[in-house]
Amino acid sequence: MISTKIKNEMTDNQIQSKEDLVIRFAGDSGDGMQLSGTLFSDASALTGNDIATFPDYPPEIRAPHNTIAGVSGYQVHVGNRIYSSGDKCDILVAMNPASFKSNLKWAKKGATVIVDIDTFTDEALAKAGITENPFSDEMEREYTIIKAPISSFTFRIGQSQGADKKTSDKSRNMFALGIIFFMTNHTLDLTFRYIERKFAKKPTVIMLNKAVLTEGYEYAEKLEVIHSKIVDVAKCTTMPKGRYRNITGNVATAWGLLAAAERSGRRLFLGSYPITPATDIMVELAKNKGLGARVFQAEDEIAGICSAIGASYAGALACTSTSGPGLSLKSEALGLAVMTELPLVVIDVQRGGPSTGLPTKTEQSDLVQALYGRNGEAPLVVLAASSSANCFYWAYNAAKIALEHMTPVILLTDGYLGNGSQLFRIPKVADLPSITPRLATPNDPDYRPYRRDPETFARQWALPGMEGLSHRVGGLEKSPDGPLSIDPENHALMTFNRQEKVNRVANYIPNQEVTGDPDADLLVVGWGGTSGAITMAVEELNNEGTKVAYTHFNYICPLPKNTGDILRKYKKIVVCELNNGQFLGYLRTQFPECPMQAYNKVMGLPFEVGELKDCFTKILGE
User: What gap in Å lies between CA 325 and CA 581, rounded to an integer?
Assistant: First the structure.
């Protein structure tokens, strides 16, 4: 048992109460920072905190040890009402000089910085580009720096259990996690149970990790300077009762597709090719073959989407997942799906580009490609998720629209949402909106491949084998009755019909909503994964007496029918996005009379609340 004598003797005045706390774990790739962050966020969620996380991977695979290029980070924001992974951190864990140098800029002034002092050798300092004393007097005044001998403690514990140095080093992250657990007033029981489950067949690994975690906790317990830093973070008071779990956006997306398949009665098929940061969608679905999911790992992106189109023709809820480079490769086949008017869900987990770009960083730069990146007039529906948790609902919604309106749907998420995580209240599938695929009726004497519903303009879905419904679809233009046609007027008609079908989806989506101060002069516009940071910025400004309104778009094409009415009400509009102004340009084409300006960020990083507040305040002051 861990001694809690010192903590029990503390007065309530020695334990700070905070509404929220931001912790950042940083080290080399392979130091276990992602695992430490995940374990801390899971423990926090299970004890009642709301959470949001931000994994920050390096783009290189196994960059040289102890270099800036190889630093891997994981930020966790815990507290009462959490919308984003936070700006600057209250506690920074840096496992080597390179992670210390590259991540100190993310620490608040006055933050606690925990370093593995054993790694700060002359050689390591030089390799990280540190030429002076890393802990100057000025720095020690600005931060509380805990120089913990993490490597030597971990090695000593490993030796006592017969583990070699390489095995011991893999547990260094547990020592740092033990310190964090003490500082955040957590017990170790939940993490002990995780270690026991994860390494059930490796009892020696269980013993080592539990011993190192305990040693880190007790090391913090003995440091007087840490006692004044212990924080009790506010528990969430706004979440409705239910069954929750910590979920990443990619897993939530996969679950949303599974739920849609069950609700629609269609078998789920994913034809895909691995690509960062979308691969985990395919991995998660492959784990759920028992729920009827069929996953085909294709040889390339083109084969992935073409197999999905074939599955859709055969009657499946067909999907393909990718990121920006893969979406460009799928563009020709997307045109085929538009021409054949088959339901198809395309998940694009956006990353920094162009080309290979920043594959592990986040960006919103695929919007124009999603809207227009096909040859010819090839309209389709574009949606965007706005949080890691609601990736579930937007994947479900994408499937519902695809199946009920017989159209391809592109769902845009991004690396921040896909890799990040939030608390997710698991719904009952029976409580989700119904999905009614537009299936044809066997032996319908009036069936025609492109006969349209007068309300939606969607065609019927006749599956191979349905009696009396033999037909042909393909990439060549057809007439409404089905045969090939090169008639100019027919092509114009079919082009109009395909566009009108997408336009009429607007009749089946809710009106756009506005939050914030109803008397504001400034309207903030966001879309996709920027929602958390913008929501917090607008809320804080309104609480401080600055009048700001906010509207966030998830339906991109078509836009909600009242979009123009909203935009025309405001004297000033700022569109915030992680690109060079793609959504702003799209809105300007449709509402050129509205006074819109841009706030853009293209750094592979999400927005910070502070920078948004500064931007909005400046615009209001102009």
Answer: 20
pLDDT confidence of 16, banded at 50, 70, 90? Answer: confident
Common-topology check for domains 2-233 and 515-621:
no
Q: How far apart are CA 29 and CA 31, in angstroms?
A: 6
Question: Crossing angle of helices 189-198/203-222, nearest 10°?
Answer: 160
Average pLDDT estimate for 310-334: 98
Q: Cβ–Cβ contacts within 10 Å for residue 362, how many?
A: 28
Q: At the top level of CATH, which class does the domain 2-233 belong to?
A: alpha beta
Q: How confident is the model at residue 10 (pLDDT cuts 50, 70, 90)?
A: low
304 alpha-carbon distance from chain centroid: 22
Does domain 515-621 fall under CATH 3.30.450.40? My reply is no
Can you read off the two tokens belonging to residue 327? 């979406």
User: Sheet containing 522-527: which strands, arranged edge to edge?
Assistant: 515-516, 548-553, 522-527, 572-577, 596-600
Q: Under DSSP, is residue 437 helix (H, G, I), strand (E, B) or coil?
A: coil
**What is the model's pLDDT at position 483?**
85
Confirm if 301 and 329 have CB atoms less than 8 A apart. Answer: yes
Q: Above 70 in pLDDT, residue 480?
A: yes
Nearest partner of 102 among 152, 56, 40, 150, judged by Cα: 56
Mean pLDDT of 609-622: 96
pLDDT in tens, 96-121: 999 999 999 999 999 999 999 999 99
Q: Distance between CA 562 and CA 115 in Å, rounded?
A: 53
What is the distance between the alpha carbons of residues 64 and 95, in angstroms, rounded to a whole number? Answer: 15
Give pLDDT tens digits for 119-161.
999 999 999 999 899 999 999 999 999 999 999 999 999 999 9
Domain range annotation of the chain: 2-233, 245-431, 515-621
- How far apart CA 373 and CA 327 sit, in angstroms, is 9
> Hey, what amino acid is at 420?
G
Q: Integer distance in angstroms from the first to the last C-alpha of the chain?
A: 61
Across the range 56-66, mean pLDDT stands at 79
The whole-angstrom separation of Cα 221 and Cα 227 is 7
**Which stretch of DSSP H or E encloses residue 40?**
helix 33-46
**What is the Cα–Cα distance from 332 to 235, expressed in whole angstroms?**
50
User: pLDDT tens-digit profile of 409-425?
Assistant: 999 999 999 999 999 99
Two structure tokens written together for 177: 């996690």
Q: Residue 332 class from Cβ within 10 Å (0-12 exposed, 13-18 middle, 19+ buried)? A: middle
For 5, 92, 526, 531, the CA distances from 347, given in Å and listed in that order, are 52, 34, 20, 19
Average pLDDT of the chain? 94
**Token pair in block for residue 84:** 């984003």
CATH superfamily of this structure's domain 245-431:
Thiamin diphosphate (ThDP)-binding fold, Pyr/PP domains (3.40.50.970)
What is residue 96's predicted lDDT score, i.e. its pLDDT?
A: 95
